[in-house]
Amino acid sequence: MSAVEQHLFSPGPKRILALDGGGVRGILTLAILERMEAILRARSPAPDTFRLCDYFDLIGGTSTGSIIASGLALGLSAEELLALYKNLSSRVFKRPPWSFGIFGPRFSRGPLAAVLREIIGDVTLGSDKIRTGLAIVTKRADNGSIWVLHNNPRGQFFAPSTTDGTHMANGDIPLSSAILASTAAPTFFRPEFIKVANQELGAFVDGGVSPHNNPSLHLLMLASLKGYNIGWPLGHERLFLASVGTGFFRQRHSVERLRYTPSVFQAVNALTSMIDDGSRLVQLLLQWASDTPTPRRIDSEVGDLADDRMTHQPLLHYVRYDGQLEIDWLLERLGITITPDQVMRIQKMDDPRGVDTLIEIGREIAARHVKPEHFPAVFDIA
Fold first, then answer.
1. pLDDT tens for residues 244-291?
2. Cβ atoms < 10 Å from Cβ of 271
3. Contact in structure between 315 and 234 (CB atoms under 8 Å)
4. Which conformational region is residue 270 in: left (phi greater than 0), alpha (psi within -120 to 50 degrees), or beta?
């Protein structure tokens, strides 16, 4: 059995790590993952060589989360990826002052492609250099379908069709191309074009323009639905899902301002709001279905679902780590004082000037909220 097959198909409890999209704010995710890695390393039978890919049997992400997920699955540590991200953010998010993303993308894909070549090289989704299950969420813009590209060797589309060429092998897709597809946010980057059949190209854009910018629910379906041919059993002592965000905040607009805002900007606001709505729905469903020590208050009506259960027994053990990128929350919950200018920077997905502040916030979230008892002993590596 390969390392990937060991993770996906060996018996015993299973573990999933799901990573949100959010552009440069992915560095907040990495600051949280540093703490998670330290906790799990201390409980590992081989702490000197431990990586998160040794613990998690499936790691997946959307957009910036796909970059982090791929690095982790290849055996990089969270600390190594954080250092790479600081360099990556300043190289990738650099644009001329006249580029607004209306008539063309704000950024060239060249710098990101170059960074991915440096980190990943010519690794494909089916490469044995990938040390655990890996899933990348993207969206095919030319037909409107959500695709999850994964390295399950038993997957229906992992190998090429043997007769009529109706599909190309997902296992042969370059990993860097899959990441470019998942990160191709409209107005930020141009679509990524991938050959999907002998005579057919697909145009892929950021998986965040779907209900799965938070990919947790999609990864749960990938792991358990029969059609994906992984088939992990459900149960709070059988399946563990850890989900990490990139920071969130409420979009607030006055009625008067919206009355006179041009339609194109209202459309962008609506798209952003739909991404947030999708993430909130994913959070609600997973808290409803799970045993979770990290419940979040969904809204003022349903609360944190502490007294609600979708089924008689929880379907999984679930933790979620994220932070609210707003002045009051940062001060009250983390003791971090921040100016209005700073908070505007860290809320953007494409402003590298907020990187150091995001690292500080992520590490403070991790110190206060990522706890050893969130990782039950039943899921420890044997």
1. 999 998 877 666 666 666 766 666 666 677 788 888 999 999 999 999
2. 13
3. yes
4. alpha
